[in-house]
Amino acid sequence: MAKGIAEVPGITCGVARAGIKKTAKPQERPDLLVVVTEEPAEFAAVYTTNDVKAAPVKVSMELSGKVSGIVANSGNANACTGERGIKDALEMASLASQLTGKGRFLVASTGVIGEPLPMDRVRTGIAQAVANLGKAQGEEPARAIMTTDIFPKLAFKESSGFVVGGIAKGAGMIDPAMATMLSFVATDAKVPKELLQRALKEAVEVTFNAITVDGDMSTNDCVFLLSTGKSGVEITEENYSLFKVALTEVLEKLAYQIVKDGEGATKVIRVVVEGAESPQQARSVARKVALSPLVKTAVFGNDPNWGRVLAAAGSAGAGIVEEQTELYFGSYLLFKGGRAEFSEEAVSNYMKESQEVVIRLNLNLGSFSFTYLTCDLTYDYVRINAEYRT
Amino acid sequence: MAKGIAEVPGITCGVARAGIKKTAKPQERPDLLVVVTEEPAEFAAVYTTNDVKAAPVKVSMELSGKVSGIVANSGNANACTGERGIKDALEMASLASQLTGKGRFLVASTGVIGEPLPMDRVRTGIAQAVANLGKAQGEEPARAIMTTDIFPKLAFKESSGFVVGGIAKGAGMIDPAMATMLSFVATDAKVPKELLQRALKEAVEVTFNAITVDGDMSTNDCVFLLSTGKSGVEITEENYSLFKVALTEVLEKLAYQIVKDGEGATKVIRVVVEGAESPQQARSVARKVALSPLVKTAVFGNDPNWGRVLAAAGSAGAGIVEEQTELYFGSYLLFKGGRAEFSEEAVSNYMKESQEVVIRLNLNLGSFSFTYLTCDLTYDYVRINAEYRT
């Protein structure tokens, strides 16, 4: 069985089929998740930077100190729902508290924007999820937060005496000028609040903040990281990097799964920019290429359209020099010294046969690099998003 | 007959079917355009800000003083073509000069990136276009610069004693952090160079720089404005605004046609942001909404998905306040005071029946406004761009 957040010592999960999404058949999929910590746990969080924040984000942002867990639902984002939304998010948190007999809860929601939560169903769902605590394992908690996701996303890492495990959801509205989508991660290492927040911020920067599906930023994005301390391993400045490496590996795997499950995606695109004169240059060029609909549709069509890649790279205005730039698709060199020369057939075949297409730009201006992940843009992206509500 | 650049006194146009695009049947459509001024003319220009600039852009940017016209081709962008590309662009310009017996020419290309120009065909084409000078009228010059465009784009305006007429091309790779796509405009007013450049810059800012199809920035974009002076009307600081208004109206019409012809588009989307506390805020919010693939697919699906609009508006990070913001689709109020209330059916019908969907946000924070034009995102956008070369 694949491991996720439920396999972290000190964590118990319960889910319920509450039927929150109007059109859902309740039996289809769980849509309510309660994550409980044995003892009150330190936590760190990264939230969307959108001006329009969903009610659960506003409510969770108010929390400090320790928490006893997370309550989350899919099928309804509780976003743009005014004062009633805030009241509903607060009720979700306090209901989870009361029914578990524990302390305060973080709260998160994902799904359709702008419809009030069907609180009758949410209340019943939370009660059922609490009653089922301990039964949800492996993929089950990840399933409860899926919306247009096709597969559940989870990752787990054993390190030196401690583990990190997490789940995530996200397929559309994925963009990384912020914490992206929902992800709940826990560790049984004992991490002081300050180090926990620092590790989360640093790890998010190179994982969730380095992926894009469609450039849209959600109102509901948050990443929660809980430290149960159950392993007894204490994280200090000395072994901080050990913890950060393990956390980054887990978030990397979750981020990869999100891109792989990008709405309508048939391929992952890994955009690697090397030889940049600054980290900012590397990042901004990689981001522009990863965001380009023309690059993304070309990959869908197995078209080694290197010109679109160069045009997108140049549009960052980051000072790339055409004559210095080398462009590779996989191991094939397409463009160097200001001109292109390669076998269209060979590169197109490479694209056809690859689940992950690697687009690598060497700017030959310095020694910095950055990697961005995205996916191709397909008919299904349009279908999914044109039909989402109607 | 619709009027364009050929109807401006002092301007003559010739086109040819040169068969520049590899897969083109030469008889299909003209692909070579020569625009000639009776006397050397003042000109103004705005170019792409992409780091990767096509050879014709680099060559045209070197010109100062007066010019005798424009030579342009479609079917091949002459971009990312190294030194040979520069040589070819220079040859196009000098060939047009020689064959017309005139002064220097601006040069522009549009089409596939990264393939060398088939110069044999280009040379023959320029000779034919020069031989045909005067025959290309109305839509004909605009047809010669089309690529994935479905219809030719032209506009004409009579003002006080002078006229402004122009053509444009552009359907994909349209993004406005710069001069967008190709547009050639002429006036028979006599405009000093400094005023000509100022008017062009100011008019581009609210027209071509306020549209987006896919957020991609081209290597080839340029707008050329020629002043033949043929009307004898002199433009000075006193009547400058007269000229600017006429020019802006022509560019506005061309910009609208580009969006209407957006790759795969079925509808124009007009994003109006009002009540902003600064012009920058209005612009950045409007731009984010216009760029959002989720908003664009929702419009394609006739889905009044106001939540996506608010999420996109908020993602600008420009300081909008959810509770203050009002959102309208056409004349329908969808969201106000932090909550949504409207007839889904009525608004969806409005969307279905409209060729142009107006999305209007009143931020209620100040008195500035900005309007952005875009189009919906459809299956055909993906089809056109996945199949473009292969």
UniProtKB/TrEMBL annotation, chains A, B:
The record marks 179-180 as: Cleavage. Substrate binds at residues 147, 169, 180, 263, 385, 390. CDD domains: OAT (cd02152). GO terms for cellular component: cytoplasm. One of its GO terms (molecular function) is L-glutamate N-acetyltransferase activity. It is an enzyme of class 2 (transferase). It is found in: Cytoplasm. The record marks 110-111 as: Involved in the stabilization of negative charge on the oxyanion by the formation of the oxyanion hole. InterPro entries: Arg_biosynth_ArgJ (IPR002813), ArgJ-like_dom_sf (IPR016117), ArgJ_beta_C (IPR042195). It catalyses: N(2)-acetyl-L-ornithine + L-glutamate = N-acetyl-L-glutamate + L-ornithine; L-glutamate + acetyl-CoA = N-acetyl-L-glutamate + CoA + H(+). Its main location: cytoplasm. Pfam families: ArgJ. Catalyzes two activities which are involved in the cyclic version of arginine biosynthesis: the synthesis of N-acetylglutamate from glutamate and acetyl-CoA as the acetyl donor, and of ornithine by transacetylation between N(2)-acetylornithine and glutamate. NCBIfam families: ArgJ, PRK05388.1. Heterotetramer of two alpha and two beta chains. This is Arginine biosynthesis bifunctional protein ArgJ. It comes from Thermovibrio ammonificans (strain DSM 15698 / JCM 12110 / HB-1).
